[in-house]
Amino acid sequence: MTDARPPGGSRRGFFRTCLATATLVASNPSLLARAAPVRHYNRVLLVDEKGEPIRAQALTGGGAYIFHYPHVTTPCFLLDIGRPLAGGNALKTGDGEAYEWQGGAGPGASVVAFSAICAHKLSYPTRTLSFLNYRAESTPFMNGELAEEERKQIIYCCSERSVYDPARGAEVLGGPARQPLAAIELEYEAQTGRLYAVGTRGGELYEEFFRRFGFKLALDHGIEDVRALAEERAEAVAHERYSAQPVTC
To answer: Which regions of the chain carry the CATH code 2.102.10.10?
Structure first.
């Protein structure tokens, strides 16, 4: 007869181990967050409008850049917050999956990137206008307790008033958004000063985005396959030049 006991011990010991592990995770959710892996896509070099590699040092000045990743039609914000961002804060997707943000990249650990698709009704920057914008200046908003608050360096969606904190993994500060903006995993090459996008963390909304806006995306980008992955290079354009009319509120 085959011994049904787990290798190396009794069933009772095995279940005690499982219970202890579950208790440890319950008391320290960050352990589960660390288990959420990066979703790896193509390693894509970020370049400027002249096709030259964009250096982390060139991002200072408080503005936002737009590039497309991991798909050629999915916009992202590229920002320099201006101070080291250690990351490590535990976040959750709209489905309740825990994950941990990587923090800043670049020589000063201050450069971050996030999906520029609002996690409420999928508002996103287009060439004509943008309801979703980075606000470097001090901006009032209603926080999660419906109290008025004012902060600098936030991502604000004027469509439905969702507000995100890019210094803490784009966690939701206020409004109806159901999860943080998906984080774009950046890789900094110290020898050359180059920045690469290599993957994502957090809640992706791409399939819903394609279902809702696929036809418009195909027209705007002049392509048939709106799900095509970015390859080799992605151009980062200053947001004020990318969108003709950023909407502020």
So the answer is: 38-246
Query: What does pLDDT average to over the chain?
Result: 87
**DSSP 8-state class, residue 8:** T
Cα of 132 vs its chain's centroid, Å: 14
Identify the pLDDT of residue 4. 41
Is residue 100 within 8 A of residue 31, CB to CB? The reply is: no
Separation between Cα atoms, residue 55 and residue 59, nearest integer Å: 7
The pLDDT tens digits for 41-76 are 999 999 999 999 998 888 877 789 999 999 999 999
Is 127 strand, coil or helix? Answer: coil
pLDDT of residue 176 exceeding 60, the answer is: yes
Residue 136: how many other CB atoms lie within 10 Å: 16
pLDDT at 227 over 70: yes
Per the listing, tokens 């992706």 go with 204
Token reading at 98: 């825990």
Q: CA-CA distances (angstroms) from residue 197 to 11, 77, 130, 218?
A: 46, 12, 23, 23
CATH superfamily of 38-246: Rieske [2Fe-2S] iron-sulphur domain (2.102.10.10)
Whole-structure pTM value: 0.85
21 by Cβ neighbours in 10 Å (0-12 / 13-18 / 19+) ranks as: exposed
What local confidence, expressed as pLDDT, does residue 13 receive? 44
Neighbour-count burial of 197, counting CB atoms closer than 10 A to its CB (0-12 exposed, 13-18 middle, 19+ buried): buried
Whether the Cβ atoms of residue 94 and residue 203 lie closer than 8 Å to each other: yes
Q: How far apart are CA 91 and CA 218, in angstroms?
A: 33
